[in-house]
Amino acid sequence: DAKTTQPPSMDCAEGRAANLPCNHSTISGNEYVYWYRQIHSQGPQYIIHGLKNNETNEMASLIITEDRKSSTLILPHATLRDTAVYYCIVRVLGNNAGNMLTFGGGTRLMVKP
Amino acid sequence: DAGVIQSPRHEVTEMGQEVTLRCKPISGHNSLFWYRQTMMRGLELLIYFNNNVPIDDSGMPEDRFSAKMPNASFSTLKIQPSEPRDSAVYFCASSLELGYNEQFFGPGTRLTVL
Question: How far apart are CA B104 and CA B107, in angstroms?
Answer without folding.
Answer: 10
